[in-house]
Each structure stands twice: as structure tokens, then as C-alpha cells.
């Protein structure tokens, strides 16, 4: 019988006003088949009863450490957890989600077997009532970091390069990397850099993370200027690949294809009112132009018009629809 000790794995849970879901989340972590865990609960200035729930649960499980801090956003809470972690591996779980009881064991088992730096699993997308809205997975494989970035742009890429929570990471990947504080979509600005450091990435087809969409979540709440941070993350990824050069230049067109619909959807949903919001929109518009000009030769004429003169593009589109209607008559 092997006497090899299982390595310590740190699970970081950023928490803010999630009292309805918190116990289910923490319970799913505590009940993992892999037991050598350090569970770090970062209460990011919650104004409900999360602080008391965390302290109460911590009294019952010595593996749990609770950190209370002033509200600084999810990125700061995750960074606090990373700085406090003592484990050889890191896993991130959002406080309103939960995980399969074998998730840690299966991910760590694949890292050990494949000698990889990161393992990723599929996930289930649910609503508040537990109704399944979708399951996202990729067939089992072992890929290089660069190959994984390529997979992220496939039809079944399930956001490989932009979500933090369905992956187990070797701690050293975070040696010089933290989440950008004060921004939304902070994982979109970070995960691709983590993947790019990896020699090998293990992909598990099983969906073992349960992402729960709530009516008051960031993605379903009223569109605000901070949601434009997602566009900035796309922009940063694009020029990260541009700077790397070589084979990474093959990713530029794919990232441009991601950027364009996100940019226009955001422009339609958000109407700036304050001087600060208008300044932010001008910044985002500038980013769009930079990507547009960088791809100018390769793009079709309609796409060039769409980015350079959206008003003209909309007018042409309406004119075409009107012409079709008249022709039908």
C-alpha cells in the first residue's frame, strides 16, 4: 500500500451577499472524496448574514479558514485567497455555485496521471430552481497550453480561456499573476494567461461544476458601464496574442470574431449618461478601431463598414430589408 501523502489543495471561495446559497456551496466542498483540502472563505464585506454563516461552519471543520475584509470586489477576494493559500494546487468556486463530490479527486488524478499543469472539466448551467439550461463539455484529451487556447474558439470550446471556476491549477501558475482588481470579467482578463503558461492541460469530459444563474447575478442584472470591462478583456487577449507573434497570430482572427459581437451587443445595451460613462465608451470605441484596423485587409467590406461606420451599416441593413419587403409585394 502506498504511503504517499496527498498534496494539499486550496479551494478559494469569494463571498458577497450569498447567504441563500452559501451552505450548499461550502457543503459540496467539504464533502469532497479528496479530503486533504484547505478551504478559504473570503467574506468580501457582505451585508447579509454570510459572515456569521462562514464563522459557524468553520467551527465544525478545521480545514476551513475565514477571512473577513472590506468590500473590494470578486477579483480582490480571489487575490486575497491566493495570497493566503498554502496548497500545491488552487481551485476556485463561486459562493452561489456548487461542485460534484468527486471534482477535486478527478481533476487532481488527471494532473497526476498526465503530469499536466492544469485540469479542466465540463460544467452544468442551471437556473435558481435547479432546471438544467445547458451542459458544456469537450471530449477527454491532453493538450498543450497553446492547443487549449485554440480549442477555446471551437464551437464546443465552452469558454475554456475565460472562466476560472472549472479548473484545478498548479499554484506556481499564479506566481506572478493576479486578477485585475476593480474590474468585472476579471477571469476573462486572466485565464488565458494561466493556460498559456501550461506545458500540458488535461481535459475531462465530465460536467462536475454547477454554475447557477440567479436573477440578480452580474450577467443578468441591468447593463452598467462596468460590463464594458468584458470588451477590454477581449481587447487585451487580442494584443497579447499579437505581441507573442509566431503561431499565436493564428488566434487573432478568432479573437476578433469574439470581440465584434460582444462590442456591438454592449453598445446596444448600454447608453452612457454621465461624463465618466461617456469617457469609458470612447475608450472602448478606440479599442474596437484598433482591432478593426489590425484586421482591415482580411475583413469583408460589410464588416469594415459595421465597425468603422455603424450608422451607415444600420442604414444599409434597413434599406435592404425594406427592398425585400417591397419585392415580395
Keywords:
ten-stranded mixed β-sheet; 10 strands; alpha/beta; disordered C terminus; 329 residues; Spore Coat Polysaccharide Biosynthesis Protein SpsA, Chain A
Q: Can you describe this structure?
A:
- The protein is α/β, with parallel strands linked by helices and about 325 residues long.
- The protein has 2 domains: about 10-210, Spore Coat Polysaccharide Biosynthesis Protein SpsA, Chain A; about 225-300.
- It is built from 11 helices and 10 strands.
- Strands 1, 2, 3, 4, 5, 6, 7, 8, 9 and 10 form a 10-stranded mixed beta sheet that branches.
- Strand 2, helix 2 and strand 3 form a beta-alpha-beta unit.
Structural class: alpha/beta
CATH fold descriptor of the largest domain: Spore Coat Polysaccharide Biosynthesis Protein SpsA, Chain A
Mean pLDDT: 87
User: What helical percentage do the residues reach?
Assistant: 40-55%
The general outline is globular
Helix and strand layout, with pairings?
Elements: E1 9-15, H1 22-30, E2 37-44, H2 50-58, E3 64-69, H3 74-84, E4 89-92, E5 98-99, H4 103-114, E6 118-126, E7 132-136, E8 141-143, H5 145-151, E9 167-170, H6 191-196, E10 201-212, H7 229-244, H8 252-269, H9 275-294, H10 301-308, H11 310-328
Parallel strand pairs: 1-2, 1-4, 2-3, 6-10
Antiparallel strand pairs: 4-9, 5-10, 6-7, 6-9, 8-10
